[in-house]
Amino acid sequence: MLKKLLGIAPQPTEDGAFKPSKLALKLATSDTTDFDNTVYENPYQGNKKVLMVCTEECNMTMANGTKFSTGNHPVEMLLPMLHLKNAGFEVDIYTPTGGSVKIEMWAMPHKDENVKAIYQYYQAQFENPKSLANFVANEMPNSDDYLAVFIPGGHGAMLGLPDNEDLGKLIHWSHTQGLYMMAICHAPASLLSANLNTVKQAIGQANSDYIYNGYQIAGFPDSVDKQTPMVGYMPGHMPWMYGEKLEKLGVSFVNKKADKTCHIDRKLITGASPQSANNFGKLCVQELLKTIGS
In the annotation, is 284 catalytic? Predict the structure, then answer.
């Protein structure tokens, strides 16, 4: 009762999960964004696209057994997509099996006209995305359709992606092909799929080091995830910490706060949080355009 009075009680959803408390929503979300609508003087005019991998799962079981209503964070997904569109790049949307994209709609900036426009532009794809399993099995080896892979954040990026063999194969393929890998906030958790033993065995790299060993990234800090239950952002503590797992594999973080930090290490582009989404989108586009022009 006291938590409800203070506005820090996670709010129940219709499917038995919980979304953030009123206070947490006030602190962590906004009706608008800092999207700056950058105009790119020489936009891309070719046919290659960006392959975006989203989650099709929405409820994370916390350490105490409660469920957190999550998915991909709309700002982390849509602001980079706005920059990609402004720069002439189209996006193909995939989920592991072709199930609908799950989005943290409680974080949607409903008064941001640019965000609303790009969401409507891709809404049909969000509702009926392509199947990653089908792409990997039937198209990937001979595909030259893509310039980059983009994985948006939100805690949903930790659901069904870090242990997905098809995603692991896609990451290795994209790395071999020299494509950019773009991951923001919690999305680096999904990069753990590249270290699955079954994936490494399937591609003949059973004894190889982790593909991103020695890389530096920006990502949502484990330390912040440990604090968010105090204000009711989540109904319990995290079931596991993705940062710890990546660090054990030789990845290091350049940021300690959930801030605007963005980072590029070789062809891996990362961002720290929703606050970084605008600059992350611009950095991704700048690198893609630089590659096209070279």
Answer: no
